[in-house]
Amino acid sequence: MNGRSVKSCTVFAAQANGVEIITVEGLAGPDGGLHVLQEMFREHHGLQCGYCTPGMIMRAYRLLQENPNPSETEIRFGVSGNLCRCTGYQNIVKAIRAAADTINSAREAAE
Amino acid sequence: MTAEVETEVESSAARTQKLEGLGTKRKRVEDVRFTQGKGNYVDDIKLPGMLFGDFVRSPFGHARIKSINKDAALALPGVKAVFTADDLKPLNLHWMPTTRRRCPSGTG
């Protein structure tokens, strides 16, 4: 919401009036391909039932903007407001770390 | 010696990968929709004439239910039906397995 990650359950509809909102549906590229975070969650089995995944991915999306190279501890702290009841957090952390690596490599290659 | 063992492990892994058997890493097909917010969960399902259900449980742990009076609940606007264990008896489903081994309606 206006660039920040928020939980829809703690935001009033009135607060969302007129602001820019990106949801997980808006992450895919124009060709419909998966965003690197989505791809890495898939690659590293960062989801099972998928219920928490939109929240996890959007939080990770913002986390990597705030901190493009987070440590495992920083990732764990960064997504601590999001709960997963299936798999535990190990693979979610792995997926976010892998996405950071991919994004950073692509950025370095572009420079 | 070590090199030989490693080679053996590698070829075993390569074989497993080729056969796509146990222990092979697979990408799940459903992850494409789940990671894009296209999952469909029970709360997303809407069918024509669908009603909402709610469970009423005893507010007292290990208490024996002597009777259930449905009148007040049925009198509420919008309430279509109230089911108790008595309604399940014709289906032989009234003996719900509980740790107390006793019918919830207290009659079993």
Descriptive report:
The complex is a heterodimer of chains A (111) and B (108). Chain A has 111 residues and is an all-alpha fold. Chain A has one domain: DNA polymerase, domain 1 (Orthogonal Bundle). Chain A has 4 helices and no strands. Chain B is mainly alpha-helical and 108 residues long. Chain B has a domain of 63 residues: Aldehyde Oxidoreductase, domain 3 (Alpha-Beta Complex), CATH 3.90.1170.50. Chain B contains 4 helices and no strands. Chain B is elongated, with a radius of gyration of 27 Å. The termini of chain B are far apart. The model of chain B has no long low-confidence stretch (mean pLDDT 79). At the A-B interface, α1 and α2 of A face α2 of B.
Strand content of chain A: under 5%
Mean pLDDT of chain A: 93
Helices and strands of chain B, in order, run as: HHHH
Tell me the structural class of chain A.
Answer: mainly alpha
Quick summary of this structure?
The complex is a heterodimer of chains A (111) and B (108). By secondary structure, chain A is mainly alpha-helical. In chain A, 45% of the residues lie in helices and 0% in strands.
Question: Any descriptors?
Answer:
heterodimer, A: 111 residues, mainly alpha, DNA polymerase, domain 1, globular, B: 108 residues, Aldehyde Oxidoreductase, domain 3, elongated
